Amino acid sequence: IAPSSFEYISSNIYPNWNGSLLAGALVFKHIERIGLKNNKVVSRSKIAEGLGRPRDVKQGPDGYIYVSIENKGVYKIIPIE
Question: How many independent structural domains does the chain possess?
Answer without folding.
Answer: 1
